[in-house]
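Predict structure. Chain length: 383.
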Amino acid sequence: MQSLNSTVASKPHYIILDGLRGVAAIMVVFFHIFETFSGGDHTKQFINHGYLAVDFFFMLSGYVISYAYDSRWNKMGLKDFFIRRLVRLQPMIIVGSIIGAALFYFQASEALGWSAIASTPVWKLLLVMLIGMTIIPVGKGLDIRGWNEMHPLNGPSWSLFFEYIANIAYALALKNISKTMLFLLVLISFGFTFHYAFTNPNGDIIGGWSIDDLTQLKIGFVRLCFPFLMGILLARVVKLKYIKNAFMLTSILLVLVFAFPRLGGHTSLWMNATYECLALLVIFPLVILIGAGGKVIGESANRLCKFLGDISYPIYITHFPLAYLYMAWVNNGKHTLQEPLSLIYGFLTVIIAVGMAWILLKFYDMPVRKWLGEKLLSKINTH
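Prediction complete.
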């Protein structure tokens, strides 16, 4: 029987890319914690471009999936591929929805527009939780928080909805597409990204998580297509070159991209739009290629990259219910970023999120994936 990691057993493992995924995931947590103090003003967000981590994840996903699976289709069918992706992604989606439901009634906040939380019947909460476990977006009738989220109990699940769509598109079509056609699709998809960045009233590429209207669904596809396709193109076309201290260099570069202050304010939106397009078109591909071509020297550095990679997905998909709690505490108490207690609780929330992710990884995610792999993949491999 093939192991769960057999997809890359014959190829080098990109441990730096694992570590970078963890760096980006932790920056997302900081972004969500401290955007609480922006008051909805994009120019005032702390770690201003943290939302670009989602676009980085999409690009990294395209790169890794193409690298891991392109050469395996003569031995692997569609059913095998989809089961492997389900086993990898679905257990944490389920537990993320459960955590969101468990903490939901503690997040009531009129200041945030969450006054309906306290009056939400338990049956409706449980229904939203069950739908969330499937990653299918809920309709407006089940918007129990009031923020028009696809997944009111666990906001970041919206990106996993699009991740599944990307996986389906890869398996059904993109795995066989020519490099020329792939390059054309990358150009076209970047055109849509460029258009959205420069026509969005906020001058950025935030969006895709809402059920407000079909426009938000279109934004989600715009944010998915270019980075995912670019990731596949990089994996198939660009040759890697070794660069010394690759993990440190790329980690610093990622943190700088995400933490970079807003450009242009409210009047020169084109400046921020330009910055974000350059991040997607130049910086993220460069980070991935340097990371894939680099090496980690020393046991401590290897352990750090492995730890960051291991917790990256669990922390991303489970941290937001904790962030909701922090947001409610800040807004209900009218706390400011300058208050020491705000910073203490903010950093404490990040630490709890990391600890919870590690516990869930060790005692839930890994055992469940191992069990599912033995049960489901063994059946496939015997036929």
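Summary: The chain is about 65% helix and 0% strand.
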